[in-house]
Protein 1
Amino acid sequence: MKNNLLEGTLKIGFKGRGMFTTIENPDEVIEIEPEELNTAMHRDTVEIDTETKKVTRIVSRYKEQFVGVVYKRDDGRLTVIPDDRKAYLPFWIKNPPAGTNVGDKVILKLGNWPDPVELPEGEIIKNLGKQGVHEVEIQSIVAERGLPVDFPIAVDEAAEKIAETWKADLEEQVKTRRDFRGITTFTIDPLDAKDFDDALSIREISPDLYEIGIHIADVSHYVRPETILDGESSKRATSIYLVDRTIPMLPEVLSNEICSLKPNEDRLAFSAVFEITTEGKIKNEWFGKTIIHSDKRFTYEEAQEILTAGTGLYFDELNTMNKIAKILRAQNKAAGAISFEDSEIKFKLDNEGRPIEVIKKVRTDTNLMIEDFMLLANRKVAHYAHEKNDGKDHSFVYRIHDTPNIEKLQSLAVFLKPLGYDLKIENDTISATDLNELLAQAEIKEQSHIINRAAVRAMAKAVYSTRNIGHWGLAFEYYTHFTSPIRRYPDLMVHRLLEIYLKGEKPSEKMLTAVSRQVIHSTDMEIRAAEAERESIKFKQVEFLASKVGQTFDAIISGVTEWGLFVEEDTAKGEGMVRLSTLSDDFYEFDEPSLSLIGRANKKRYRLGDKIKVKLLKADVIKRQLDFGIVE
């Protein structure tokens, strides 16, 4: 390769400009002008000439399938305008299938595109139906990100074969597993949960010492390497949670039945068991295959009611575990764990998928308790495996989180300054203690959600890796994902590797090579699934508010630009724009240092973080856009 040719990843940014980076130097960005992209698209792997700053070759396409809406051009040709705004040109449909109409939402495949001056050719492979319809839009969100939906028949058949023999197999497993069926065990999950990944058990050893078991569904016992089930689950890599459905990683006969730790039934588990004092000191730890019997399925609300009332089924056990969890949480925070909080919502839908109620999620002690024990299991499993593989890279699956990028930290400091917060940056980083104090102050001032959101955006993204660098946000030197193998493929890999290390053996080179490839794919699929979840929520936020045009809402200014204000209303947490043109009482100017719009004559100031009242002027469900006006 010539010295001036470089291979890396292209991202399409503002106004269609390309941003080129390499794996070796991810922070060094080379800008490529739109006319020099040479048909390259968002996230493609490309080769560029660093002297001319032109794309010279497309090494591989990130995706070749797109979703969009059919339109007719002035010249009579049918085109598809893609939903993906990073796809900067419409597609020309050379041979549209019969029945293709303007306004249809379709899935198309990128075809011939030899000349970047011409429109790319696209082939319609599926017509989803009219845009704006609930089922069409949800299918579009999933298809746009290349996420699988239905299982192949052979995969379902493989799962059904397991269902025919699993009970007899379970009886055989009793002979070789540590038996927890006589110890108090329960699950605590959301009300609508069907796949119970984890259960907790508790047994008193002495008045100040307890054995707490963190029991995780033993998916690896049923989903074996190099089987059709394993191939499908590794391809999917994660379950997908949308506003109206879950698209599982495993067939439901496994995810909701055989693997799920259902109450009053024996189940196979892979467990992390700790002897913990009431002061949160761990005296002993054990990892291994178990058989359990959950005595009770709690929802978070049910368990919290018992804790709040101070009485009820398993109160003593819940109360003891909650006290220990709080100590573990305090220890983590003292070590530098960042306490990010953000407001979450979910929707109650009618039979046609229309949102009829917004439900704001509340994180209670029981939510936090489960999180704390899952963190403990994940951290300790990672540490154990790290020691067993002598700390060698590429021998285990870690969940890593790098230190924040200095440029993003500086941008965060600029964002926070007008709100009255001074983010201290020393030696190109920030103190976890300082950031936690800042977040605590923001919570008091009811600015926590916009501060949390800005802080999260400034952080590096947590990813899967076979090279351990620790988890900065959690302040853990070793961390992994062990606790959700029903819905995350990396957890399944962790179970397999942990089993090998527990036997005193080493994984094969073939296995480790496959793991190294899979962690990259799993991170990518996690990102796609998260994007789909956010987009489905945004769809329902706008649809919910569409029937409330003309109504007034309490809101907070979440962003300030030279063309207007971004505001987030308080009912459905929908974010929209107050355009500068609607501020008719004065001529307003953007003051960047204070992130404000200031009236030239009246000196009225609209600042980031201000609480205001707004009227909803327009809700465009198709574009997912909200327009507001300020109410004086």
Protein 2
Amino acid sequence: MEELQVLPLEPLDYAAFGAFFVILSLIGYWSGRNERKTSKEYFLADRKLPWYVVGSSFIVANISSEHFIGMVGAGLIYGICAGMACWANVATFTFLIWFFIPYLLASKVYTTPEFLQCRYNSILRHSFAIVTILTNIVAFLAAVLYGGTLALQTLFDWPFWPTIIILGLVAGIWAIYGGLSSVAWASIPTVIIMIGGGVLVTILGLYWLSGDSHSFIDGFKIMIERNQANEGIYAEVVAQTSQQITHQDTYNRLSVIQPNSHELMPWGGLLLSIFTISIWYNALNQFMIQSVLGAKNSYHARMGIVLAGFIQIVLPIVIVMPGLIFFAKYPEVMKLPWNELRPQADKTWIFMVQKIIPVGLKGLVLAALFGAIQSTVNAVVNSTATVFTMDIYKRILHRNGTDKHYVKVGIISSIVVLVVSIILGGFINKLSNSLFVYIQTLYAFFAPPFAAIFLLGILWRRINAIGAMTAVIFGFVFGILLKLYIHLFPSHYILLEPFMNQAAINWALCIIVCIVTSLCTAPPRPDQITDNLVCNWKNLNIFHELGNRWYTSIIFWWSLFALTVIGIIILLSGIFV
């Protein structure tokens, strides 16, 4: 593989990037200019976001530098199964649309920790608020800033610390200025430029792969053929890495269904990750759900998630397929020692941008990367400030402040969160794992206990606060002990090594602990199990505000989204390859 070179930018590239930044700034300023009068305006955009803003904001909060950097690298190493990080969300989005959103909106909460207080008690609210703040800073914001800085440093040979500082400050400015309204409305041009720039890399990558034929179709056929790895160096490198990836002698790079021993996407752990990592990430995670809480009503919140679902269908074309293209072009990179391969894989997308993007379009791709970074930074900063202000400061430190006072606290805490994340982001480069694996491993540790009590709390009235607290304590203790055991005896139980399997086992045990403890103790109070908080299975209140015509129907568009994803998973299950 050729060495990475500094990426030259021409005046047209600077003009393209500058135009995007100006548009983003104008939208951020205009939408947030009058949103600091009350805490509802600053933190929840006065609950007036339409569905297309909710969906765009949900997606751009999710997709950031760790996807362009980490997931493309995962596609290089593991193949198409990395796309299940997007496609498997069909189940969680279904839970969101039909079960979680009606109760989150009916409860009128500002944050998901506040919902846990309404359903359980203040101890769980404060505990989850602290966990949310820590994970937002360590697992999300620091990683996003590091990934973005790594890309810019590699592309332009910029010094690391000045780059991460400037990137953090510039990317987070609108979350500090205008709160959720600025963050959410700026997501519309961001999602357009992000997907457009990403698709451009993939399309030009296929032309690049096709060689002298300069054919998009030929490039696609070559990508498929070489990733099948039936002969030559492709078969050799797959055989070489198969033991490390699956602990087996064979490995299908073009199948989304992988054995339970697979390091990244074991099928059993992936199935249960719907109820663990995915629920925690998409439904409990404040920076993902905040735009949903700011929706006009249940219809706009649900239709926003449907829109996000359709975008998730095409995202693997942007954030996984470049890895397959790169494998087809440079299979020899897979011969690197394992501890060198994963950091090198994180440079895949950057290398492709350098090699294949022509003058004028480099600015567009840079805008896509910056848009992905700033959108997630803004979302995480705003949501973390919301949790700190409403769940910690207002509840524990200063109960009787004015709305303006809490907005001021939100602004100050946003600045503090950003500074701390910049400092932590500077030290992620000490990790030997890939960026994507680092983030997913943290998810797998924090998600199981809270995902368990959130799911049970909405679906079953008999679950009480004692059962929930016992499950959370058990989940974290068990998670620590499990990691210690695997570290001390790594070869004893291969099936325990994948982080998804660890999360699945922990979640299942937390479910059992929560149910048994709840049944052995007193039922919850009536105010903790109202129809606004828990499913009333005798009189389900989840079928209102579904749209009046077929083309506005949530049922129609959700069904189309779900069937499309199921079809993709069946097609890529390995049966037809």
Protein 3
Amino acid sequence: MFLRPNDRTKDGKTHTYWSLVETVRTPDGPRQRTICYLGELNRSTAARWRKTIQIFNAQGEAEQLALFPAGAPLPDDAQVVAIRLDRVRWTRPRTFGDVWLGWTLWQRLGLDPFWAAALDDSPADVPWSRIAALLAINRLCAPGSELAIEARWYGSTALDDLLRVDAAQVNTDRLYRCLDRLLPHKPALEQHLSARYGELFGAHYEVLLYDLTSTYVEGLAAANPRMQRGYSRDHRPDCKQVVLALVVSPEGFPFAYEVFPGNRTDVTTLDEILAAVEAKYGSARRVWVFDRGLVSERNVACLRARGAHYLVGTPRTGLQAFEQPLLTGTWHHVRPDVEVQLVPSPEGTETFVLCRSAARRAKEQAMRARAQRALEADLARLATQVALRELRDPARIHQRIGRLRERYPSVATLYEIGLTEERSRLQVVWRARPDRWAWVAARDGAYLLRTNLTHADPAQLWEQYVQLTEVEAAFRALKSELAIRPLWHQTDARVQAHILIAFLGYALWVALKHTLKRAGSPLSPAHALDCLRGVQSGDLLLETTDGRTLRLRRVSRPDRRQQLLLAQLGLTLPERLGVDIECSGDSASAPLENHALAGAS
């Protein structure tokens, strides 16, 4: 810190006023910030100030020191007041950094004007577009129910300063009514986001990744016909569910989504997804990439009829037709542990890509070895029981053998298991089948892709296919960070609106993910939000020597880690929120002119 003179001419006479200044580090380099204004100082007073500064810097605040020497008059300046340091208070601390980042992403994606045009066409106490922002930012930062937003979350954040929505105006009724207004704008929202991702991140949608997941509901949901029991990816077959179909770009940017009944099988959803995408974006020769669970001859024919390209997985049973290439074909490495080879179809309309992964091979071998040991141990126990004549009925023994085959289907076909009789004594015998073991060993780690793309670069085809992991990453984000499950709403409209809010939360999440990636940051979106959650806002209450109390709403300074993250994101935290006011105690009253306060910035 140091003293800085400021010359001012008043009534034809030059006056020198002094300021206490410090140098601070910012992302743009060192800057000087005024701590307080000291007014006119003679030589002795200035010397005392310099001595005070020297003691403060060397020893720290060992005791409270008056900012002005006793009896020294204040400058005749309305912008300068004297405060009592023993009455300085910090009140109303609230989380700021994470919700401010969510609001920044919301604006960067152009969602504020989009929802304002869609929802704010009628007068309302609170703009519905701001409630939509509130719901999406909550889903990004601290996902919870509408009741939790009202009771605990909103009041603990600084969103009221950012959205200009008072906490008293946030209640479950208003949140539910906002949900009811969102769903009709889903198609326009998907188109807006896909265009905005192209502008911000250069996203392309010539290749589309398609997959499905499920999310379950707590409760009976008797009034919702879409809620049905089916194959549960959440391992909750006891609960009703809906199936969520998601289409994303190879980078994970969302393109479209649909909600199907919970008992809908994956393979029957492709027609509706293709029709929905074409209705929103028009027909185009896109490349559709999806896993073997969606593959059927009907779906493949449907893609061909629409003039679309496809690159899909196939069931493992299809490998049997490629036994010879698996055993003697020429492999090409696309990665140190992955090798591929092209196998054209006899008709010439398709190309098959045989892929083999060393890591996958090791995993399958370990799983098979474990099943093999368990089967042989159970067979040995059964053979002992038969030898000791604990089991004598051949029908029951054959039944036990059949149950073992059912328990270990992956290895049971690799053995010949039978019941023999020697000297009137039954025996359970088994032996390995070398012919089948050779085929299984060749199949380990292998899988088959199928495409009608004309280029014959197996490495590029494999790279496109493994981008399906981006859909899986989107589902993980939706189910973990964004907590789309479980569903608590019981009606179909509210359930779909809840999913739409989760989709908006994912839109913010993926925008943050790629902003961090572009900046070279190693942090994930969850870690970035957690890092900035430590930045708080609060009210600094200052009592002046003339009996007034001033409230300054300020944002805490980021630490070194937070400064680095903000610099990587190209963002600068605001220092203050709202207007500084004069208040009585802790409550705000009439607005006050901005003052440069002695001892505060």
